[in-house]
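subagent[fold] <- orchestrator: predict structure for attached chain, return tokens only, no commentary.
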Amino acid sequence: MLVSYQTQPTVLPTPIVYQSPVSTTDPTTNWKTYENNYWKISFKYPDTMFKPCFNYTTEKEGIRFWGPQFNCPDGHDILYKIGFVGYDLGKYIEYKKPSSTETIVVDNKQAQRKTYVYDESDGPLSSLKQSTEVVFGLSNGTMILQQLGDNAGEQKVFDQILSTLHFLK
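subagent[fold] -> orchestrator:
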């Protein structure tokens, strides 16, 4: 005598998936936009933290951003916090050897992120302790976005500014 057994498929309970809330708030939403037609770039900056100074640079030379407690001077100075600087082909000269260099990609363009550490031998730059430069070699020259000083909060904002940098068509 043949006996056949039929088994019922095991029904497992449907798992409940809990997702952590993801913040969709962009901290750069209310930032102002700087656009430079010579270098064909734009980036955002927090105007509550940095003031642009147009007094002594051309669009080709770039722009410097000062902390809110300083006024824009009539000449170059190391007190600015963030700088966007452009150099004609062959004109960019590295002041000193960087303490670290890494290759990064920003808006599909390769760049070198360089950190410089300053000491007494660097004269007035020693008051900065360090600076970071992101250097782009472009067909019309060298473009640099830089952050002067070792303030961790300003370095974080610098990285956010860098994340908003776009090359214009």
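orchestrator: received. Logging for downstream: The domain at 32-167 is CATH 3.40.1000.10 (Protein Transport Mog1p; Chain A). Helices lie at 152-163.
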